[in-house]
Amino acid sequence: MPVNIPDKLPAIEILKKEHIFVMDDLRASTQDIRPLRILILNLMPVKVTTETDLIRLLSNSPLQVEIEFLGLSTHTPKNTPIEHLMSFYTNFSKIKNAYYDGMIITGAPVEMLPFDEVKYWKEFTQILDWARTHVTSTFYICWGAQAALHHFYGINKYPLEKKLFGVFKHRINDPSFPLFRGFDDEFYAPHSRHTTILAEEINRHPALTILSESDEAGVYIVTSRGGREFYVTGHSEYSPSTLHKEYIRDKEKGMDSVALPENYYRNNDPEQPPLVQWRSHANLLYINWLNYFVYQATPFNIEEVAQLGEL
């Protein structure tokens, strides 16, 4: 089934060239089913890239998905045209009385700042609290995951000696957990971050469960509230070229000691294309989240989300 996204969103033409079935609002209105309503709070600097990456994965489900984008009124991105934001993004005041089947909250380029020094922290945490009563299941990514774990459970983030940058092997702690349906025993996922969270802190909190870890990248996926929240420290949504673009960007900025992304280029040679090892599991991750923790858990009357307990 297609994913339903706003008319004229740049991702539409990009994804059609990849033979991914997307549907605009007009055509979707003729189908007599209730689509899943997914809200995306996109905090990444290059909005169009992140929009496309996430829609690509959300489109690989037999479910019809209706996507809305949320921005922050207390922050104006520098790398996205204001016309794009005005056309495709809403703000919290306009949707705070609405309910959603699922929500995705992305990372943000503020991980080196203490949480309470992020200028939009107050608005951001208001949205986190709202999601707990207005969204069936929320999927937090990278800094978004660290920030939500800190806000809800007091989990700290710690600076790494060097940037964790590359594609790393992960293991599953509970293979029977529905999020990993169809996964292999080991799988790969990209990471790009300067900070980390510690397994020992998470394990001390009875409400949190570590679902997946890596010897190199540490904690990868944490869940709470019976699957109503997932915290993912990496970037399964990344396209094959994203780490390459980050590497070239940092080199062009003249940053000292720019390291190659690990386990990424063929023969560890940046002149060769990346060896993509994470796309199949990325698709499964999002399909399983949509199926088992959104579609099968959300009420048909979406306003009843407020009455949900643990899944």
TrEMBL record:
It comes from the Bacteria. It is an enzyme of class 2 (transferase). The active site is at residues 142, 235, 237. Its EC number is 2.3.1.31. Its main location: cytoplasm. Substrate binds at residues 163, 192, 249. Keywords: Acyltransferase, Amino-acid biosynthesis, Cytoplasm, Methionine biosynthesis, Transferase. The record marks 192 as: Important for substrate specificity. It catalyses: L-homoserine + acetyl-CoA = O-acetyl-L-homoserine + CoA. InterPro entries: Class_I_gatase-like, HST_MetA, MetA_family. GO terms for cellular component: cytoplasm. It is found in: Cytoplasm. GO terms for molecular function: homoserine O-acetyltransferase activity; homoserine O-succinyltransferase activity. Transfers an acetyl group from acetyl-CoA to L-homoserine, forming acetyl-L-homoserine. This is Homoserine O-acetyltransferase.
